[in-house]
């Protein structure tokens, strides 16, 4: 039962990441597909978005934080697989998402996003490995799955509330 729940949580999290990275959490896919602006930045950390003339590192921090659970969930679900293949999975996911953005012109393709997403995944992978040196795997897995489900329910509730409020305002 625990394995089914953890795999399901991983699958839902990957879907959520795809929705976040490709569609910016939009319910209206047409607004994303109508974007038609293709940009490519291959210079790392060269173009952090500017707000009021100062550099905004918020998006980079958000990318790192949002990919930490991916690393944690990969470790919960694939204990027998070594660190390097899991690292490559995070890197490949991030590169694929950025390439899809470029190909379909649905966002800005940026090497900084690949780097920060991957750093987040690595942090999740290493955090899990570090914690399991001191605490039993099963306890950590239960905590990660419980917190993950709680956060997923909270996120879905917030998005449903937001969608409901938007419909009321129409």
TrEMBL record:
Keywords: Membrane, Transmembrane, Transmembrane helix
InterPro entries to which the protein is assigned, alphabetical: Teicoplanin_resist-assoc, VanZ-like
Pfam families the record matches: VanZ
Residues in VanZ-like domain copies: 11-129
UniProt feature coiled coil, ranges: none
Record's keyword annotation contains Transmembrane helix: yes
Transmembrane feature ranges: 12-33, 53-75, 87-108, 143-164
Keyword field contains Lyase: no
Protein name: VanZ family protein
Native organism: Tumebacillus amylolyticus
Lineage: Bacteria, Bacillati, Bacillota, Bacilli, Bacillales
């Amino acid at each position: 039962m625990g394995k089914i729940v953890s795999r399901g949580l991983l699958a839902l999290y990957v879907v959520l990441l795809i929705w976040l990275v490709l569609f910016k959490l939009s319910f209206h896919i047409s607004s994303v597909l109508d974007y038609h602006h293709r940009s490519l930045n291959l210079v790392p950390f060269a173009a952090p978005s500017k707000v009021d003339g100062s550099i905004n590192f918020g998006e980079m921090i958000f990318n790192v934080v949002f990919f930490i659970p991916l690393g944690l969930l990969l470790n919960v679900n694939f204990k027998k697989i070594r660190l390097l293949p899991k690292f490559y999975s995070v890197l490949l996911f991030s590169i694929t998402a950025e390439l899809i953005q470029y190909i379909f012109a649905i966002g800005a393709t940026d090497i900084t996003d690949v780097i920060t997403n991957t750093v987040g995944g690595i942090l999740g992978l290493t955090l899990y490995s570090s914690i399991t040196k001191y605490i039993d795997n099963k306890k950590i897995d239960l905590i990660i799955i419980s917190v993950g489900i709680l956060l997923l329910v909270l996120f879905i509730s917030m998005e449903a509330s937001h969608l409901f409020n938007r419909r009321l305002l129409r």
